[in-house]
Structure formats: structure tokens, C-alpha cells
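Contributing: when you submit paired examples, paste them exactly as shown. First protein:
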Amino acid sequence: MYVLGIETSCDETGVAVYHPERGLLAQQLFSQVETHAVYGGVVPELASRDHVRKLIPLLRRVLAEAGLRRVDGIAYTAGPGLIGALLVGAAVARSLAWSWRVPAVAVHHMEGHLLAPQLEPDPPPFPFVALLVSGGHTQLVRVEGIGRYQILGESLDDAAGEAFDKVAKMLGLGYPGGPELARLAEEGRAHRFDFPRPMIDRPDLDFSFSGLKTHTLVTLAGSAGTRQDKADIAAAFQEAVVDTLVVKSRRALEATGLTRLVVAGGVSANRRMREKFRQMARAHGYRVYFPRLEFCGDNGAMIAYAGCQRLLAGQTEPPEIRVHPRWPLGALVPPEG
């Protein structure tokens, strides 16, 4: 089964073709970073317009690269995300499915991230614990199989990626803020400033990062504001976030008795985070899996893979254009459900 994946949840237009035996055959990605950098964040209307402009050319390119004129099924991101952006992808996916007379399946954006490591040569077998860290989500999930997800903990306020972006703005860094902060942190000394590790003294698996933003603002105001000051603050902030994620993830593994951890989502590309998770895994006998860097951010490949698994399991849906700007991961069910 050749499955076309379409991702348009925010400011990345991603298209890919996946086959369960041949693997990923082709993929294309267009980033709108330059468009939104002027505004310091994503402008929803501009994002939707760019998806309209770029999606069809990318589709043609991917199909040509895969050597196909049509596919056997279509998967598209139906949420969560920006409603206008989601509708562009959903409308194109449903229109193609109708014209080609093939099934189409709506995919949860975070399920795509969660399953992205399955695209690797050595994928994690079920069950495992997943830490999903992105601009909009920070969640710990017990994963028993496709659609069999138990939320163990999540952020009570800002997601980790959102906190990175907001602190980057405080430090006067460019857009997107998270990667810029990580680069600046490489010049810094994390031990110079004392930053808290929020909620690690609580037995639950929830997160909170809003207090770290306030602590950063106070620390910055009390410094001279030199580049070295900002680099040291960036390093201390990053270390606090990463330590918190590592501590909570280890607790989730201990609580579930599982030994495999998947770390996925845009923030999983952070170099320091990968380093500290690998240290934790080696020290305690766990195994940690990351998607390759090109699959950490939003992309069509993860949507094609997730949709393919659901289509192969027999999931069918009525031919209607429906998106879910807010869509809890815990609301998903297995394909046979």
C-alpha cells in the first residue's frame, strides 16, 4: 500500500510517500520560517496562504520522486493545530481521495511525532514510554500500540518548547527562538546561575515551566545584560528544563516497569537533551530512542507512516472534511476500535 502523507498543522508544509515494505520513498518539506521571522512568531493567516501556494507543487514533486501517478491511501494531519492551516491539508487530501477513489484517514499530529522513531532502521518495539516535547505539548505517554495511549503526565502551563521560545525573546534572540537559545547556551556556563527544577519534588509526572520564565526574567534583570550574561542564563535555563524532563521520564519508566523510552517532537532535536537522556539510559539500563533530526520537527513522513498503520489495520472514515484544532491524544483509539 502506497500512502501519501500531508502535514499542514502550523508553519511547515510536509508531503511524503510511505510503503510498509519499501519504507519511505519520497518526502518534501517547505518551511515558512523566513515568512514569520519578521513578526517574531507564526501568523495563522499567512501560514494558511503559504500552504495553499506550496502544497500542490510539493505533491507533484513527491509523486514524481516516488515514480507514482497515484497512491492507495492518503493520510493527513487533522489536528491539533491552526484551524486554517489544518483545513488546507484536509481539503486537498479529501479531494484527492475522492478523485482517486482511495481511502483517506485523519491523523493526530502528536501520534505522528510519537511514531516518528518507527521510521528508523532499528525502531522501538511496543510497549514503551514516550516523552513528547514540542512547542505546544509536553507529555509523558505509555504506549502499548497504535492508538493505545495512556497519558501519564503533561505540562500544567507552558510546553517546554513554548518556554524555550519565550525565554529566547527575553534574551533578544531571533525566531525561531528555541534553536537560537540552544546555540547561545553552548557559549554559557550553566553553573553560574542557580535555576530551580520545577515540580521534581512532587511524586506525579506533570510538568510546569512558567515559573522558569519568571526566574529567567528576574535573573536577566539583575545582570549586566552582556552577551556572556545572556549565554550563562541560556545555559542555566536549558539545563533546568532538560534535567526536569530527564527526572520525570525516569520516574515514568520506574512507575511503568518499562525499559524503553522514546523522546520525540521538535524539542527532541536539542543536542544537550539528547546527551543527558543517553547518560540517564546508560546509567540505569534503559534504552532511549530519538527520531533522526529531519523527523523531529513537523514533516509528512511521520503522518504517512501513522496513517499507513491505521489504514492497514482497516480504519475507515466517512468522506468529510473535518479538523480538530484541539484534540487530546488520550482520546485516540486503536484502529480496530
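Second protein:
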Amino acid sequence: MLLVSYYFSQLNWISISKEFVSLEDLPEEFDGFKIVQLADLHNKEFGEGNKRLVDKINGLEPDIIVITGDMLNNSQEIPNNGEVLVELLENLSNDYPIYYVTGEHEEGMYYEDRNKYQNKGTKEEYEERLRELGITVLNDEKATITEQDSKINLYGLKEHLSGEMRIEHRLGKTSDDKVDILLSHRPFYFDEYVDWGADLVFSGDTHGGMIHLPFIGGVVSTEELFPEYDGGLYHKESSLMVVSRGLGNNPVPLRVNNRPELVEIVLKSK
């Protein structure tokens, strides 16, 4: 009974990971600016209408919410696929600006296989519903966030199933005088994000390695055994990357020492 209780607590007991992140050139107006990250929900529900998740987010009082993909499952077998996320966002979008980039599950909605285009209309209609709620979907695009007269840049990399980054071709060059924040589903391209010039990256995908062992870290992700970026804050040269352990599970409901996670990042001026 203890093992069963532990197993269900690991799947359903939401944790909050908070980090203070100092960035060069961050305007004073953004000092204390709070970003909450959601990732890898995979149609998971924390209570009816995701009420427990909504209550946790409201308790953090974010300035913006960023979503880094895989919020549903790529399957024709799931009726009303995406409705769990739509309902969640209906309960959040009136209170917070929300920015969204896709993962492989959104980009692969109803693919017959990875080499064929999706049936026309599935992903496009899903994204249009999000936009109608006021969600900013960033498909290789940039948004500008303004506090008083100061601005920072927020870029979103659309998930490419081919795995080709070509970031500068897709997003252009980073700015010389503004903080550049990047949303991208996959953390494995951290070197490319650093070379491009991102100051701060939000990513997910690894589910925290599913099983987290002391001194070892995550054991398995969708990409590899013992993933290098299983969760937390990573530094490389002048760039930082935040990797969420995610909220849901796919393809199996497995989390050990690795509870579902909301990430709270507070920006600080240096």
C-alpha cells in the first residue's frame, strides 16, 4: 500500500521549482519579472478541469506563462485530442499573457508516419483555437514584451520533426541591446542555442528522465538513456537553459523521485 501511494503521489503531486536568474542588460523595469513554465502535459488532468494545476499557477501570480510543447498526445485514438489543454487555457488566458511553442506531439498530430504530412486542418485548427483564446503561438517567430518603456525579446522555435535547427535562418540574429529569451521544446540543441546567442532558454521534453536517481540523475528520456539535460538550470558560456521535468507522462505513466513540475523563474538585473 505504501508503494502504491508513493507511485500515485509521484504522478499527481505537483512540485514547484523556483530559480532566480540574473541576466546581463536586463532593464531595471524587468527586475523581479516572473515567468512560469508549463511543459509536457500530455493530456494529464490534475482534478476536474485541471483545477489543482490552475490553483498552483494562480498562487504564483506570474507576469507571463510560457509553454514549451507536448501538451497533448499525437494519436488518432484519443477523442477530442487537445481539449484538456484548451480547457486549462480557458481558465488562465484572461489573467496572464501566454506564449506557446510546439513539441513533436503537436507537430505530429495525426501523422501517418514521420515522413508524411499531417492531414490538412488538424494542427492548424488546433492552433487557431488557441489564438482565439488570446494565446500567442510562436511558429519560428518573435514577440516583444514591454514593461513601461523597456523591452525584452521572446522567440519561439517551432518543433521540426526533421531535427534541423538552422536557428538564425528561422529567427534571424539576436539583438545587441536587448535580452533574448528562447522557447524551444528540445534541450539537446543547447550548443546551437548558445551559438545563436540566446540569453535564456526554456525547454522540456525529457520528463525529468522518468526515474531520478541520487548522484546519477534521470535514467531515460524519449531520446536517450541518462539524458544530459534531464531537468533544472544549465549554464554554458553566457547562456542559461531551464529544462522542465514536465507535468504529464508518455508513453507510460512512470515517475520515480520525479514529481510533475511547474517552473517559476524570477528575472534579476545584474
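If you have annotations for the second protein, write them as plain sentences, like these:
Residues 164 and 189 are 10 Å apart (CA to CA).
The chain has a mean pLDDT of 88.
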